[in-house]
Amino acid sequence: MTAPAIRLRELCKTYLVPEREAGTGAALRSLFHRRMRAVAAVDGLNFDLAPGEIVGFLGPNGAGKTTTLKMLAGLLHPTAGECRVLDHVPWKRERDFLRQITLVMGQRNQLVWDIPAADSFELNRAIYRLPVADYRRTLDELTGLLDLGPLLKVPVRNLSLGERMKCEVAAALLHRPQVVFLDEPTIGLDVTMQRRIRTFIAEYNHRYGATILLTSHYMADVEALCKRVIVIHHGRLLFDGDLADLVQQFTAHKTIVVQLEDCAADLHFYGELVDCSDGRFTLRVPKAETAHVTERLLADLPVIDLLVEDPPIEEVIDRVFTQETGRENLNTTPMERGQADKKDIQGYA
Amino acid sequence: MKLLLQIRHLLNLYVQQFKTTFATMVQYRASLVIWTISAVLEPLVYLIVWSTVSNGSGGSVGSYTAQGFAAYYIALMIVNQVTYTWIMYEYEYRVRQGYLSFALLRPVHPIHADIADNLSSKLITLPLVLIVAAVLALLFHPSAGLHAWALLAFLPALVLAFLVRFLIEWTLALAAFWTTRVSALNQVYFVLMLFLSGQIAPLGLFPPWLQTVAAVLPFRWMLGFPVELLVGRLTPLQSLEGLGVQAAWLVLSLLLVRVVWRAGVRVYSAVGA
Amino acid sequence: MNFLRLFAVFFRVSLLNEAAYRVNFFVQLFQSLLELGTALAGLAVIFSYTTALGGWRPDEMLALVGVFFLVGGVISLIIQPGMSGLIDSVRDGTLDFTLTKPEDAQLLVSIQRVAVWSLLDLLMGLGVLVVALVRLGEKIGGWQAAGFLGMLLAGSVIVYSFWLILACLSFWFVRVENLLEIFRSMYEAGRWPISLYPGWLRFGLTFVVPVAFATTIPAEALTGRLGIGSLLGSLAAAMGLFALARLILRLGLRRYSGASA
Questions:
Q1: Which of C114, C89, C91, C92 has the alpha carbon at shortest distance from C101?
Q2: Does A115 touch chain C (CB under 8 A)?
Q3: A103, C92: Cβ pair inside 8 Å?
Q4: Domain count along chain B
Q5: Which of B34, B181, B194 sits opposite C185 (nearest CB)?
Q6: Quick check: C260 and A77 CB within 8 A?
Q7: With an 8 Å Cβ cutoff, is B153 touching chain C?
Q8: What pLDDT score was predicted for residue A334?
Q9: Between chain A and chain B, are at least 3 CB pairs below 8 A?
Q10: CB contact under 8 A, C54 and B195
């Protein structure tokens, strides 16, 4: 078995955050004594990535995705634990290591603003010391794959957001890195452009066998590209496996919400009881049996109201978070929770 | 009656602007230090250079001894601190960022807010400069002929100098309406100021023809004249004449402001905010 | 050498960028010439009243003006743009991109931005210097010339290191840009020989803000005023300050990347 391209063992990153109460008194006191709170952005991550895998890194805002990515790229020093990328210790920032990786950040540009993208590419060629022939070949291929032709001569500031992103991605891949870190590459892009970028990433991975770690809010990114997903929340690993398994695990079931007089009835016979409050039962039922169970419930019990839900994928993820961390919010239905998170997920089409 | 009300409103505006500027200044303490350093360093350097020349030329240059130069340049430092503006940079910034629309929407002429901002900043920096001036006085032993009448005349001269300088530099600042190359224009202005307002050398040291030129142009009346008055280099008659010239320039610059502002607004609205 | 190769690339890119704005070139030309004219006119005024300023003759003062513009040009050309670029990139996080590149971070941040038209100031300074040298002609020996070049280099290194240290403060404090401005204001005092100034000001302009190393000391070397002690001292200061600046940058980067102190 080949060595993993990326390996993490109990990787931790803790920040010290100054803590202060409101008010002038507290403000003055803070001049002399600052109270610090330790925030674990990443809390003991373990996983391996084989060469050539595309893996989706999922989690809500503040889950620790970007922090992990930065540690893998050598930009942050871990507080504890170990990580190796291509058998290098990232934060040592060895030249050999840096030549084989690349980082694309959806919210920040590395292209020089006022000049055509082609000139920024030349800069990268000089920095990475790419032989002219190799550089031209790679550039031609990237131009073809990303359809960059007319964009290269235009000053970057005159490009649209999507066009700029394509050029950013190209600039980041000119040196044919073995490991590609993508931090929300499709954020803020329109649906067509998102699809374009996704297709490109898949094609790039297919052609060059680069290991790709991608973070995103958009389930569509992950669905399109990643067979394997890693879900983290509060800096901890919640799920690491095939996306199909993740989906299967949570949508092999449906949710039936039954409103009865009170919680006295015993419904465990019909399906897995998730909870009950005020006569409102939430049951999890295997998909196949949904119709049957519904029929039985309606026939057997004095049902005041009945609801059958099919959780959307964001909801699936949310379930992973709330159920696995045991912090289920009992005051909202899973559907309401799903809706609330939809607002949080930016740009959900 | 209405005039009184207008004055009250204007005064209120100034007070409010003071408060705002004060609060902002406290935030940007560092830029204060920088401005103060430049404001102090330039006259100090010329003081030293001319003192050196004076000492190497048998004790004096023209009617200025090293101590005379010291008095002159320390006074210059103070007068400059009272009369200087940064309004050209301000307007270039506003035009670039598109903030001018706000000024144009106000029912009051924007110059009032600008004057208020300028003066309120100086409330903080002037004491600093006065302290530095006092220290420099201890170090360089200035000597000047101070007369009571001159000190009395100094105050109106200073106020007039401030007004003339502010109005003219404010008009210049409006060039931002027409071009983005204001830095080149500003530079020309600063060079003229440097030579013709008594900064690079007291105007009394210039050849007569150049002194006439300086007397005709406004620069001397913005800076050099109050300085010369304060350190006792002018006769009462010259001082009185000077005040008259300042008053004339005040009228001229008020007219200039009016004309250029109107033209500027027209240009600005034509181009679009 | 790698540095020259990379610098050529960055320079070319900046030039291409600016070439699109021809007007800027002419505006800069006008401004630079105006500045030179002002400096020369100032000298003319002073020397209409004396034959020597604190022992400096007109041609020697001319050389000082040349050095002032030359080093000022170097500062405007690379040092200032690079260092304010560093401060910006620390603030908005684009420093991350620099850090993922397989090149020395100090090298990249130092040459990443080039204000191409400041080349005019540099060339102007060079021109004035050449004129001054011609007029001083026979009085310059080989050793003096070597000392001058050495001091010019040392001065540039000292100014660069000083700016780098100031810029690195942005790893620990905010709103450091203003500090850079302080140098700019104090640099004006370098138009005149530092030897004219009283002790405390001389001290400030040498050891607090190293203006003297940038202007007066190379000019003193050229005009035979610089003792061997000061010469060696300047070289030592250049090396020491460069090492210190590099160390502080490394500390700053460690802080930026959250390494344990």
A1: C89
A2: yes
A3: no
A4: 1
A5: B34
A6: yes
A7: no
A8: 41
A9: no
A10: no
pLDDT digits (tens, 9 = 90+) for A219-246: 778 888 888 999 888 888 888 888 877 7
Answer yes or no: are the C-beta atoms of C17 and C24 closer than 8 Å: no
Assigned token pair, A13: 């990153």
Nearest to C102 among A73, A91, A95 (CB): A95
- By the CB < 8 Å criterion, does A205 face chain C? no
SS (H, E, C) C157-209: HHHHHHHHHHHHHHHCCCCCHHHHHHHHHHHHHHHCCHHHCCHHHHHHHHHHC
Q: What is the mean pLDDT of chain A?
A: 81
State whether residue B187 sits within 8 Å of chain C by CB.
Answer: yes
Q: Report if residue C261 sits inside a domain.
A: no
How many other C-beta atoms lie within 10 A of the C-beta of residue B109? 13
In this complex, the residue of C50, C179, C181 whose CB is nearest that of residue B56 is C50
pTM value?
Answer: 0.80
User: In terms of Cα–Cα distance, which of C123, C119, C121, C115 is closest to C14?
Assistant: C115
A92 touching chain C per CB within 8 A: no
C145 part of contact set with chain B, CB < 8 Å:
no
* A311 to A227, A240, A316: CA distances (angstroms): 20, 20, 6
Q: By the CB < 8 Å criterion, does B61 face chain C?
A: yes
Show the domain range for B82: 2-271
- Identify the CATH number of the domain defined by range A6-246: 3.40.50.300
- ipTM value for the complex: 0.89
CATH class of the structural domain A253-344: alpha beta
Distance CA A62, CA C93 (A): 17
Q: Which domain holds residue C214?
A: 2-256
Question: Which residues lie across from A58 on neighbouring strands?
Answer: A231
CA B140 to each of CA A109, B43, B64, B134, B143: distance values in angstroms, whole numbers, following the listed order: 55, 13, 14, 10, 9
Give contacts of C4 with chain A, Cβ < 8 Å: none
Query: Neighbouring chains of A at 3+ CB pairs within 8 Å?
Result: C
Q: Could you state, in order of their start, the residue ranges of all structural domains in chain A? A: 6-246, 253-344
Digit-coded pLDDT (tens) for B148-193: 899 999 999 999 999 999 999 999 999 888 887 888 899 999 999 9
* C8 within some domain: yes
pLDDT band at A329; cut points 50, 70, 90: very low
Asked whether the CA dihedral C197, C35, B184, B159 is positive or negative, the reply is: positive
Contacts 24+ apart (CB under 8 A), C87-90: C87/C167, C87/C170, C87/C176, C87/C177, C87/C180, C90/C170, C90/C171, C90/C256
Alpha-carbon span C167 to C249, nearest angstrom:
9
Contact B184 C27 (CB under 8 A): yes
What's the total number of domains in chain C?
1
The amino acid occupying position C96 is: D
A296: tokens are 């039985």
Question: Cα separation of A315 and A325, whole Å?
Answer: 15
Q: Which amino acid is at B124?
A: I
**Does a structural domain hold residue C249?**
yes
